[in-house]
Input
Amino acid sequence: MKEITLDVLHDAATRLLFDMSDEEYQTLFEEFKILTKQMETIGRIQGLDELEPMTFPFDCGNSYLREDVAEEPLPREEALANAGSVQDNEIKLPKVVG
Amino acid sequence: MSILDLTISEIHQALVNKTTTPVELVKEALARAKANNDNAFEILIEEQAIKEAEALGEPEVDNPFWGIPFVLKDNFSTKGIETTASSNILNGYIPLFDATVYAKLKKKKAILIGKTTLDELAMGGTGTTGHKGTTFNPWDPKHERLVGGSSCGSAACVSAGIVPFAMGSDTGDSVRKPASYAGLVGFKPSWGRISRYGLFPFAPSLDHVAYFTRDVKDAALLLDVLAGRDLHDATSSLEPVERYEEDLSAPLKGKKIAVIDDIVQTISDQKIQLAFKRSCEELAKQGAIIEHIRFGEDLLQSIYATYIVISCSEATSNDANLDGIKFGPFYPGKTYQEVMFNARTKGFSELIKRRFVIGSFSLMSENQDILFRRAQKNRRKIVNRLNEILAKVDAIYVPAAPSVAPKIVSSSYKLSDEYLIADNHLALGNFGGLPSITLPLMLEDGLPVGVNLTGAAFEEKKLLSLAAGLERITGLANLSVLNKKEGNL
Amino acid sequence: MNFEAVIGLEIHVEMKTKSKMFSAAPNSFSREPNTEIALLDMAYPGTMPIVNKQAVINAIRVANALHMTIDHELHFDRKNYFYSDLPKGFQITQQFRPIGRDGYLEVLGRDGKKKRIEIERIHMEEDTCKQLHFMDYTLLDYNRAGVPLVEIVSRPDIRNGTEAMHYVEAIRNIVLYSGTSDGKMEEGSLRCDVNISLRPYGSDAFGTKVEIKNINSLKNIEQALDYEIERQSASLLNGTPIQQETRRFDEASGKTVLMRVKTSAVDYKYFPEPNIVPIPLSDEFVNQAIATCPELYDAKKERYLAKGLNEADASIILSDIAMSRYFEKALPLVKNAKTLANFLIVEVNGYLNKNAIGIAEFPLDEASMAEISNLQDDGFTHKQCADIFNYCLANKVSPKEASSALQIEKQVVDEGAVLQAVNAVLDANPQSVADFKAGKDRAKGFLVGQVMKASHGKLNPAAVSKVMDEELKKR
Output
């Protein structure tokens, strides 16, 4: 695992597109110490590695495929009504490069 | 006592008998909501509620929800009604559609009078982290105690007597823990039993629609209405929907109940220990078979870290759609990254950001094996153990919380170094997607504390039957601040 | 030193389903922005993905055509990253269990021999929204957000631009004829990204990979790759190492140009999509999807060849799926498939080009076309039939009406009548016969002309020519 430093946490936050106060990074740093220690302990639980990771709590058997039928789309004004920056019926952003 | 202080089924009788009307009920609920100062509401829906109540014709004898006022936690999508999940990043967001549970309740002519506060984006257990600040416990007029979260506003509304039921969501214990602090029935059916369409996701593999009522019968009646397949939610179950109230008066004789000793023993509050012990004796007296088992301390200690890693990982992905571009406050910037960065930096509170970093870090490819996938493996280990137990008994029975509602000053939303097993064990029900219900056990110096029953997946009917039996033992059905009781234990 | 190119292709194909991959918004490529959106496509909180059945059927059909092992349980995963065109902040894809694995295609190499290109995976995913870039801002159109895609990833088995072009062409034919996509590279419904590196012949190691993005025609694939191989070779030979970068093909100069140098790889933090439980696919469902797949390009071609078309004719007709449909509708009505094919390739294509329309707008129906084709096989000359064809189109009448209006009569092919006429002309022109015998081939043309003239054009020239040959030999 990547070693956790304040810089690593800062980088992770930046990649998530937000910033935090210095104090919060410190709190987070402490939290990570606790969490990784506990996860290490979990790693020592017997027989853990033979188990498949679980996403769904049980075998659902209720999956289905949707028939390919188009429904009435959202009226455009409604679809864009919550957007804060709209021009010519489209959402407007600063020029996206690359 | 007002008719509003009765249970849903009792209010229904009053409506059918025309002792009251939906308009009277809704007006009283709104008046109580306005008088309440527990900070339970994001928004009150006065005009629409009264209009809907006035538009109702003759009472529908077979529909217990006809004209009944209720509230929704503000993480359910409501068309045309601002929905923020108590986060600044969604301020001003007006959804374009109704969550399935709201649509179903609307169809039954229940009347929405407000949307309630929560821990921001439902991530938290204290009811203190929403953008409107702390929601207080109605049982403590001094406002020193929290009501618990994340479904804090919904819990407060029902225990303060504003409405007889309230919708919430439960990812770790977000309904069942506050139910304990608020003296309510808090019920989370199996994963997939109720459609999550329109519920703002926190961690979909753990998220459940759940709710508060004031007795077990109401919880059963509500499930009749809410359960079922929804073509908008691919995880919603095809298991047939039952009449969940049918077996509520069945005797407890022969029912097998497992008490997990290594959870109970971690509780230091002797009054809770004693009341819990008495309840077990009463259950046994009525013919139930109590089996004392150990779950395994290492597994119990692993619950919280496992929960944090899985839920934060899913959350960081689910909430990546919150960027100020399509909805929520837009902040200008020189680049699109800056636009998103500003919205997310200003829109999320610091707790949420820390959780997102934890989740994101757990999902990084070089960390997954020892964080995310390890947590998922441990989830399976835990669920295997749960199912092993539930194969032999009808339910697992434990105290829902280690104490009465804690004081706000002592509450923390930082990760703790201690293994707080009795505080975290309710997440077992989320790991396994199991039906799980909290109901009041006793009052300690005027503050309620609850117990919890958890059953096998899709055995809601059996679980509710057991819970009703237990409710007869505690004598605390239909408890609220306006309807205080002593109880039997 | 000589270098070997190691090329792998990633092809994204937009499916032409009626609705999107995970939402029920229409998928009809509307040009009016933001008019084909469902709640999920703008990632409104609380919306959930539901898998489109037809998209799965299409993916199975393409996987089968590529000889792949088909997974009988569908799994979806999230690919997490932030970008302006990605509404949810993640894309739903199939990272861990693609619907198809381990296939291959056989394509013509540069040496004209067949070569097997192995295919690693095919998976389903969803498209992003479309960005329109202006001077100082960008507009977002969500119509494309959620359009179903299949991505087909080859192994690095390709060695030059020609192979790459043939590989993409073969895949385009599969997605086109299976009804999965309209496969238009120019319009972006089939998009091709290339990874290319060079290494000394005989080496097993891989060189530094360069990515070339969004090449928009078959011809450009060949050109772009051949250029890039030369560029990298030259660079390596003069000692400049290749840097890891993304390039694009510039059509005007025929060169690849640098877009950006790649920095550290993005970590997409893949994990299983928790809102879609695994979907088992029964054998019956998979088999049915395959059995009901429309006839594919190769099978059609084989069938056309068996009907007497040559390779070139079959390829021309199959190069336009609408043309092949027209051809097949007329086919049961004609006596000779080859005659019909000739009409389509020459006369019909000529008309379409002149009027700048597609076969869909061609006014003559398949039955009339078959009738004209049959006239030729009944003994009318090609020229006569072409006149009828043109008259039909010009005057919007049926072939029958056209031939009576043109007073076209069938030429005589009866051998007796032809023989008589030929001998009459030979007898009357001994000098020309002598010229022919002396080696002047032109004399035959004169003699045939005389016969035609004498018969007022009523004899069939082919028959006259054939009899003429025989009779000249006898003299």
In short: Chain A touches chain B through 59 residues (CB under 8 Å).
